[in-house]
Amino acid sequence: MRSTTFIFAALLGVVSVTAAPTRKQATQIYISTEVVSIAGGGVPNIPLPSALSTSTLNDIQVANFLENLESAFFRAAVVNITAWGTTGFPDDTLDIIQRIAAQEQVHVATFEAILTQFKTPVIPPCQYQFPVTDASSFLKLAQIITSVGIGAVINLAATTASTDPALIQNLASTVSNEARQDAFFRQAALGLVPNPTPQDTQISAIWALNLALPFVLPNSCPLFPEVPVFPAMTVVAPTGNSTGDNGTITFFTTAGVSGNLSIAWVNQANLPVFTPVARTLMAGQLTTSIPPGMGGMAFAALVNQTTAKDVTALTTVTLAGPATVQIS
Asked: At a CB cut-off of 8 Å and minimum separation 6, what does 274 contact?
């Protein structure tokens, strides 16, 4: 079947602010009562701290960017899945997607309210393209997009723990909701267990943004977070819903690099693992081994050193990627 690209022009806009609104006012500005009802709740009304660090506000802008994409994806899905139907999936699939779409709008509003209160520019939505053709391909992509969102919010919580701990409750409650969404997609779309590992995987804001970029139409973003953009890296083989935690894997990248290359693997709350790259006969293809002991969603990036101790350090030496790898 020929792949269909659905382009969703986001509906939310930038709100001009002359004075910092209260949390109640922010909720009224950004989100409707209908959305709140479907989502099961609205923007948190717990007081925000009197100040936030510049680094945290920058990271919240990236989170705003990512949540815009998720919100657009799921709102478009409600329309398309209604047309496609959900034969072969749980009877309440459409109801769940409608609820997730509303919850993602609440997540967008939550981050926008924080940025607005601290007079930091809100990141307006871009236009997006999602290569899905039916309910099955949508649900599979939904699991990847949600895993990226989970990793980014874990990272935001980790980076704010020392600088802005008052935000942790907000972030922890958001990431737990995203994890429940991910559990549904794993079962419904992939036929995998909903809880494959005891921890989820943190990725940097820069990695998360790079993973989102393939779904963003070029030159469609009114405002774009200032982060480095890496050459993409994707899995060529094996194909299927999961790779397992042994054997080999082949990636493709357009990065023109040479020398002693490695794939850096990030999974759960563990130190990075490095595996050496063997170039294949086809240009741009890189083959390496899958490290044992990983599970769930892993993230892999091309690097030329093996000393980085966490995903933040890995981001500074990334040559291409990251790629999402569904291990189990």
From this structure: 262, 263, 264, 265, 303, 306
Distance CA 140, CA 242 (A): 11
Sheet architecture: strand order including 248-253: 233-237, 248-253, 285-289, 278-279
Bond from prior residue into 121 cis (ω within 30 degrees of 0): no
| Interatomic CA distance for residues 208 and 242, integer angstroms | 21
Quick one: pLDDT band at residue 18, thresholds 50, 70, 90?
Answer: very low
Which residues share a beta bridge with 218? Answer: none
| Exposure b/e, 213-239, CB count within 10 A at least 16 = b | bebbeeeebeebbebeebbbbebeeee
Taken in order 102, 105, 180, 193, the sign of the CA dihedral is: positive
The torsion angles phi and psi of 272, rounded to 5 degrees, stand at -60, 150
Residues 2, 131: Cα–Cα separation, whole Å: 10
Q: What is the DSSP string of 58-91?
A: HHHHHHHHHHHHHHHHHHHHHHHHHHH--TTS-T
Burial class for 259, CB neighbours closer than 10 Å (0-12, 13-18, 19+): exposed
End-to-end CA distance of the chain: 27
**Could you give the CA distance from residue 219 to residue 241 in angstroms, rounded to a whole number?**
33
Helix (H, G, I), strand (E, B) or coil at 114: helix
Q: How far apart are CA 225 and CA 206, in angstroms?
A: 9
Cα separation of 133 and 119, whole Å? 40
Secondary structure (3-state) at 41:
coil
The conformation of residue 275, written as its DSSP 8-state character, comes to E
> pLDDT digits over 218-274, tens only?
999 998 877 899 999 999 999 877 888 888 999 999 888 878 899 999 999 999 999
Size of the chain in residues: 328
**Angle (nearest 5°) at CA 285 between 281 and 288:** 100
| 3-class SS letters over 216-249 | ECCCCCCCCCCCCCCCCEEEEECCCCCCCCCCEE
